[in-house]
């Protein structure tokens, strides 16, 4: 009797667990805002967002050439990243990408809305790269020009400080002879017969 009851409880637990998994899988929403970034002739980066509240531990990406049945499947778990690099693409080729979320219990969400993109020519990628390099050179030239202006301003400031110091030094130097003359004059007026070298009482032999 107890064995029959245990068996029924076990079946009930299995049923409830299966029901929980099915409900959880149905409630897991598909990724949104799927976009392509860093698009090149042979590679690209897929990015997406996860609806708030979903417990997601991984993703799965399906990559397909337009009008071609062959698929590439990329899956990764135990990650919170919201982007994935696509490689070995062909230039001037149309691709379709779907993204799915993987839940903690295993089931995946529905596919996201299909994202279609086309890879550019290799020459267009090189031209874009050259344009970026020119832009970086322009930025470097602007930075160097700014540094040169700062150096010039600093030199002008130092020249002003040195000129001011020299001017003050000349004023102090010009005042020193007048001070010495005043001291000599005062010494001459105060001479006495005890000091026959100066004063009105100086006698001639």
UniProtKB/TrEMBL annotation:
<dbReference type="GO" id="GO:0005576">
    <property type="term" value="C:extracellular region"/>
</dbReference>
<keyword id="KW-0812">Transmembrane</keyword>
<dbReference type="GO" id="GO:0005886">
    <property type="term" value="C:plasma membrane"/>
</dbReference>
<dbReference type="Pfam" id="PF00041">
    <property type="entry name" value="fn3"/>
</dbReference>
<feature type="transmembrane region" description="Helical">
    <location>
        <begin position="148"/>
        <end position="166"/>
    </location>
</feature>
<dbReference type="InterPro" id="IPR013783">
    <property type="entry name" value="Ig-like_fold"/>
</dbReference>
<feature type="compositionally biased region" description="Basic and acidic residues">
    <location>
        <begin position="176"/>
        <end position="186"/>
    </location>
</feature>
<feature type="domain" description="Fibronectin type-III">
    <location>
        <begin position="30"/>
        <end position="122"/>
    </location>
</feature>
<feature type="region of interest" description="Disordered">
    <location>
        <begin position="176"/>
        <end position="205"/>
    </location>
</feature>
<dbReference type="InterPro" id="IPR052120">
    <property type="entry name" value="FNDC_type_III_4/5"/>
</dbReference>
<feature type="compositionally biased region" description="Basic and acidic residues">
    <location>
        <begin position="113"/>
        <end position="134"/>
    </location>
</feature>
<feature type="transmembrane region" description="Helical">
    <location>
        <begin position="12"/>
        <end position="32"/>
    </location>
</feature>
<dbReference type="InterPro" id="IPR003961">
    <property type="entry name" value="FN3_dom"/>
</dbReference>
<keyword id="KW-0325">Glycoprotein</keyword>
<keyword id="KW-0472">Membrane</keyword>
<feature type="region of interest" description="Disordered">
    <location>
        <begin position="106"/>
        <end position="135"/>
    </location>
</feature>
<keyword id="KW-1133">Transmembrane helix</keyword>
<keyword id="KW-0964">Secreted</keyword>
<protein>
    <submittedName>
        <fullName>Fibronectin type III domain containing 5</fullName>
    </submittedName>
</protein>
<dbReference type="InterPro" id="IPR036116">
    <property type="entry name" value="FN3_sf"/>
</dbReference>
